[in-house]
Hints:
This protein has a domain at 6-113. Helices cover 12% and strands 36% of the residues. The chain contains two helices and seven strands; from the N terminus they run H-E-E-E-E-E-E-E-H. Strand 6 and strand 7 (104-111) form a beta hairpin. It is globular, with a radius of gyration of 19 Å.
Amino acid sequence: MYKTSDNYKLKIYEPSTKHILKVFINDIEVDQKYILDCKLSQTLFSNDEFNLGSVTAKAVELKLYKSAIPETINKIYIESGITGETVPIGYFNVDDISINDDYTVTLKLLDNMIKFEFNYDGSELNYPCSILTVLQDICLKAEVELRFYFFFKHE
């Protein structure tokens, strides 16, 4: 959950509000004129099974002009919002690239939750240890950056 301003909360659902989509490939922002379509979806049950600890994985289908895509894609980051205020959608990994025609490409992207689909072995840790230590070890093995956000209310 991201803290947004009261202005954002008032304007985001108004039909007249112009929404902003920012796409960054390898830390370079893609010019708006090259973004053709962006469809976001979330899946909890990809195999019709429920497991304790299941989390949603975000998927994005992103259609761009071919000229906006570099030869190598290391990471993709997406933000959305209104003028003056955007919120992160997330970091994504390329799952598939489809060449539509001579000019456009569709990228199928999955967020970093996909990297946690492995059997974790914490036997190398020194026990007893904190839950934070286990979390740091899991993220290290999944090659996912662990970030902490702290929100303080000022009065």
